[in-house]
Amino acid sequence: MFRKSFKGRVILPSVLILSILVVSLNVFLSVRFSLLNNALINEKLATNIKSLHFYLDDNKANTRTAAVSMSFNSGVIKAIRERDREKLLRLFIPMCDQYKIGYYTITDNKGNVLIRTYEPDHFDDSILNQQNIKDALNGKTSSYFEVGTFIKVSVRTGAPVYDTDGSLIGVISAGVRFDLDSEVERLKALFQAEIAIFSIDKRIATTLTKNGHSIVETSLDPRIAEIVIKNKKEFIGDANIFGEKYKTYYKPLLDSRDEVFAVFFFGMPKTELVTASNNVSRDGVIFGLIGLAISIILIYFIMSSVSEPIITLSKNMRNIADGNLNVNIKVKSEDEVGHLGKSLQKIADILYKLLDDINVVIAEHKKGNTDYDLNTEPFHGDYKILVDSVLELAAFSMRDQLTGIPNRRSFDNRMEMEWNRAIRDKVPISILVLDIDQFKMYNDTFGHQQGDMALQIVANAVVRSLTRSTDFVARWGGEEFMVILPNTNASGAVGVAEKIRAAIEKEVIPCDDERGRNATISIGINTHIPGQDCVIGDFISAADNALYKAKEAGKNRVYHHCEN
Questions:
Q1: Dist. CA 330–CA 312, nearest whole Å
Q2: Is 365 exposed, middle or buried (0-12, 13-18, 19+ CB in 10 A)?
Q3: Which of 69, 156, 247, 348 has the lowest CB atom count within 10 Å?
Q4: Hey, how many other C-beta atoms are within 10 angstroms of the C-beta on 455?
């Protein structure tokens, strides 16, 4: 019986599935964390590669800024002209920290060194072999990765220095060096990886050690050297460095002749990540076994407690499925089943309110009240999409798509509502029929696109001219518009009509008129206190006839059928 019961059909398969999961957990975690380990290393490597490129570009930019900025310093120009080495050292040494560079080298106009901030006692030697110096002496500011007299690997920028008379008197070369132990230690902290700088294929600075000693002056792996130095390509891959596995990246640095003169290396040891992966796998198995035991116990007690409310929920769900949304779901539990019951009740309530609100909107739109809307804040997700779609469809059916104002169907509904209200309250009602003068000729002259724009301008002007919330404007068809003015006598209707006519006359709607006027409208008015025997069609026809009277009288005018 237990196997056929609701609890049995859930508990027994759950225990079997959980047991299989625990048995296969060790294998799964080993594979999973191995992949995760490689993914983490590769992701960190990719991030470091991007950071290295930014780092090198930033240093190149810093050297350029440092060189160019100082080349315009009047004190520097004077000191170079006078070959005042002591003053040059005083001027340039503090600037290294300010511009975040490593050193300055200053030469005269023949390429002979005046000062080196990093070697003050060495000067007067020629460094014309450096491309940045050659370019600067030819009037060009340039930046290169280069080898120098004392510095084996650096990025440097040379900038020409001109005297006040415009003559070239020297060169300022600013650089950042990468061949120092202090620099690789700083980069190790920055990239969280082991760093090495090679001069061609020899390590000249590195954070890598063997038996506690730095491994400088050791050679690059010949296989990697073939790729990086000979083929001038980056290398990314696994490497065994003195018995330890690393994920490595080698970047060749090219000098001005496009030759590899140095290599930048960083590597991430894989030993710690492998150990961590194994520990996670072991912990996963332990927690999996504990979770299995706890899950079996919890499943039994949970299924025992939820079987009864599930039956109740099933009955209520059948009612909702049959279209009965007015349900009262009574599930008192606070577990998942209880939340399911509350969610199901919420769904029923939302659908019930949704249908009720939609019916209200449809009823209001049928009355011509196209501005009526409902509060959609209680609805979310697909419910809100459904509400918005229904509202959009209702608005689409009741509004003119070109002008955005109510259409003829909306006008008919609103007219009937206001007409019945006027009969009930025994008050006057007025109607205006508006028509754009000579609109066919306007379309033929300016094109239908301009004609559509004119219709939109007229519609907007009419809407702005109406000040009461009860006044109503609709597009009747073509170039004709209708305005309903509830509880308005003839004089009031004439005032509104004149306001609209004047507003349109001021709008910039060019007309094919030799006097250069804007397009105009004519308006027919009818006002009446309707009784039970009055017909809406006759009322509208009289206003339409008044419109033709306005046209016959010369257009751009208002004509009222009667005054009450």
A1: 8
A2: buried
A3: 69
A4: 20
Give the CB-side neighbour count of residue 159, counting CA atoms within 13 A: 22
pLDDT score, position 148: 87
CB 232 within 8 A of CB 226: no
**The model scores a pTM over 0.70:** no
* 550-564 residue pLDDT tens: 999 999 999 998 644
> Predicted confidence band at 544 (pLDDT cuts at 50, 70, 90)?
very high
Q: Are 277 and 37 in contact (CB under 8 A)?
A: yes
Give pLDDT tens digits for 307-319: 666 666 667 677 6
Per-residue model confidence (pLDDT) at position 168: 95
430's CB contacts (< 8 A; 6+ apart) are 484, 485, 488, 489, 490, 492, 493, 496, 525, 526, 527
Name the residues annotated as catalytic. 479
For 90-156, the DSSP string reads: HHHHHHHHHTT-SEEEEEETTSBEEEESS-TT--S-B-TTSHHHHHHHTT--EEEEE--SS-SSEEE
The residue ranking higher by pLDDT, 441 or 332, is 441
Average pLDDT rounded to a whole number, residues 389-410: 80
Locate CATH 3.30.70.270 in the chain. 399-560
Length of the chain measured in residues? 564
Residue position matching structure tokens 């048995």: 23
Strands 154-162 and 142-146: antiparallel
Is residue 62 within 8 A of residue 101, CB to CB? The reply is yes
User: Does an H or E element contain 240, and which?
Assistant: strand 235-241
Mean pLDDT within 354-358: 70
Question: 120 or 212: which carries more pLDDT confidence?
Answer: 120
Q: What dotted CATH number matches 181-269? A: 3.30.450.20
CATH class for domain 399-560? Answer: alpha beta
Please list the residue range(s) of the chain that carry CATH number 3.30.450.20.
181-269
CA–CA separation, 143 and 157 (whole Å): 4
Q: Which residue has the higher pLDDT, 56 or 391?
A: 56
Residue with tokens 């600013």: 174
Cβ contacts of 269 within 8 Å, gap of 6 or more: 194, 244, 245, 246
Q: How far does Cα 3 stand from its chain's mean position? A: 54
**Phi-psi sector, 547: left (phi>0), alpha (psi -120 to 50), beta:** alpha
